[in-house]
Specification:
Elements lengths: L7 H7 L19 E4 L5 E9 L2 E8 L4 E7 L7 H8 L8 E3 L4 E6 L2
Antiparallel strand pairs: 1-2, 2-3, 3-4, 4-6, 5-6
Length: 110
């Protein structure tokens, strides 16, 4: 949390798996954010988005305070939530570009 933005308790509440009215827990959604479990047991909190010709993902590991933001100029072919999980073991690292549908990855830590 940051003063004037969201306090820690609000962020903790947002990252708690939501239980919808039918009572069946949705393990991969919190309050307005996606929750992605990593093989190591940590949870990435974030969001994906898309528009025609554009895909994006932004996730953070609240424990390590490392995050990943990926932007692509593609409409299909990139599973953006999976991309965040695939990049997680490589943290921390710096930006680089890879061929194909112009994928640029940026990862920053605190």
């Amino acid at each position: 949390g940051r003063p004037g933005v969201l306090d820690r308790e609000t962020l903790r509440e947002m990252a708690t798996p939501a239980i919808p009215p039918d009572g069946v827990p949705q393990e991969d959604y919190g309050l307005g954010v996606r929750l992605l479990a990593t093989p190591s047991g940590s949870v990435l909190v974030g969001h994906t988005g898309s528009m025609p010709g554009f895909l994006a993902t932004a996730f953070v590991d609240q424990d390590s305070r490392y995050g990943v933001v990926a932007l692509t100029n593609a409409t299909t072919g990139v599973a953006t939530d999976r991309l965040a999980l695939d990049l997680r073991p490589a943290w921390p690292w710096r930006a680089f570009a890879r061929g194909g549908p112009s994928i640029h990855w940026f990862v920053a830590g605190s």
